[in-house]
Amino acid sequence: MRVFVKAMFHYKSIAQVDKLFAMSSLNITYIPNFYSQEESIEMFTKLSKCPFKQPIIKVWRKFYRPLRKSCSYGDMNLEYEYSGHYELPLPWNGTVLKIKSDVEKKTGIEYNFVLLNFYESGHAKIGAYKDDKPSLDQSVDITTLSLGACRDMIFSKKGCKPVRQALEAGSLLLMHDQKEWTHAIPSQPCLKEPRINLTFRRVWSSLQQSLDEMERDYSIPPCKHLRRE
User: Fold this and answer.
1) Which phi and psi (to 5°) does residue 187 adopt?
2) Which of 70, 100, 177, 190 has its CA 20 to 30 A from that of 110?
């Protein structure tokens, strides 16, 4: 059973009410202070020691190394592909497993994979994209935990004005159904402090992905019912 968490909002101005409606239309839930400031600093310090590397990704038929670094953790037999890069998760470690447990208790969702992105400064960014990869279980919400510097996320949809949401340290963001929206972390050169975000997903196992591909490639059209004479 899926459990949707509703953030508690206390608003005193029309602007805040407008923001609340904007978030509702985005189909997201923002939970500030999921971790306290002290907890956020502790988590950031521990996670900064993870084996981050610069991935090689493909954008518009060209390969390049983004400024951000990444690594991932997850269950066995998982593989996550994005922008031509194949991410093979490391076995869960104690810190990441503790955060995973806290996130699952809050959301009521079980995850088997988490991607960590490390932004050394505001120059590091992520272009607009959708979480619509075949390897993802589309029925499960994607949850992002932010640690370190506060960065903005921009949500865009064709025909709509882009919406900017600040992701504060220790905050949790749930993205429910995002088929019509793209999201991005824009460059903010004025920021000098680093940031780490953890994006929890449910990824199909390699075996399940192979079976799905075989079913698509070798599917047999349904037989027509024969009429008995």
Assistant:
1) -70, 135
2) 70
